[in-house]
UniProtKB/TrEMBL annotation:
Family annotation (Pfam families): Trypsin_2
Protein name: Serine protease
Presence of the UniProt keyword Signal in the record: no
One example GO MF annotation: peptidase activity
Polar residues bias spans: 295-307, 327-348
Keywords: Hydrolase, Protease
Amino acid sequence: MTHADKREIDKIKWLQKLGTISLVILTLGSLGADAMPKKLNQAEINSLAKQTTVLIAPQLQPQELEDLLAKKPGKTWTFGSGVIVAKEGQTYYVLTVAHNFAQEQVEKNLPYGILTSDRQVHVVQSINDGQNCTNNFQVDNRLGTTALLRFGCYQSKRKVNGYDLAIVTFESSLNYAIAPIGATKELTTGELLYVSGWPNIEVEAKLNNDGSPQLDAQGRIICQDPSPRRQRQLTWSPLQALISASSAQNGYSLYYIDRTRPGMSGGPVFNEFGQVVGIHGRGSENKLVCGQVYQPPTKQRSNSGMSKNDGIFDPDGNWDNPNPDNSENNGSPDANQQNSTPNNQGDRPSSQQSNPPTNPANSNNLQAFYSSAQNIDYARQLIVQAGVRLSLNLASPSVELIQAGISEIPLNRSTLESEGSFEDPNDVISNIYKTFSFDIQNMLRDKPSDGGGILLD
């Protein structure tokens, strides 16, 4: 073998080695690209929301239904939303807000229903956790004995003590999707956030064609008429601020442009990658409050956002209203507000709102103009501190999960890329009153042998 031949062989070996290295690099690069989370579009986020968002409500009594349909003042039925975050055996764990369980309802141990994506109602009968609602609320984990774990408490016409967060469980042998969990700390201002939940129509304001509220003879905002049909809503808007969670703010620390509606409290807040990064529960002060005397927003507050009823908790509603009973999920005519256009999609017209501050100086400014949520990072800390060990889904959503509930979202004036809302026509409750007017004894008697929920709708 000549010296030239040897050099040629060495060259070929070197090229082969280089090719192998390049192939390895390309392969690793491809794997890395696949492993990186991918930004999802509205339809893909909505698919995840549809499969994991639940509706939470107490049993609707006959007299309550009669009063509701008659629109009797002060006679209400409340409900909220939640998201499935874990499963242990046949026990599903739903993360929601504490104010979906008023102290009065908890103490009465009222049966609750959790409506899942397949329209089955899973009855929860042990809701009383034995906790008193005091200013110094102490978390007491009694899961197993009771289906409810609260990190704070809510008394109607008063305020939330502690953190406005709760876990409620239900039993089923059926398979339900578990929401992927993200990290709040990785969020950046301007990033789109998506909120999913079930609107409570009866406690929203009735609007004129120009978007102004309809008023009665006393100048009070008229509530919308009862409606048995419901559609789950998905809203999206940019993150405006992320502050540290504290009990002084009941844990609220994520602030975003307000497009939410009553009933969406407890629903999941997704990031752009389809991961839950928060639990929605509070709207801005710039909401119309059904049942209250109407005043233009400029007369209701200054741009300081300071509340004249400081300390009164108003979940998803007008924090500075002189009437303390104005919770977005409280359901009373004088307690709720509307946040939609005349066709019930999205915010009411901007002419009904004050201008947000260009540089919010404190949480009061943020509360005045933005919706807010619990952040999932701190929620996980609270859950661990309470001694609850959950196997959370920390992976990015799979293609199979995303495609399982996919449906098109047409772009129009209510569904812009950067800010919008969508009522899903494929995620409907045809008669919510019938669904939650359940008879427990008959339901238990007729319960399917597979241990699933009760199909009512």
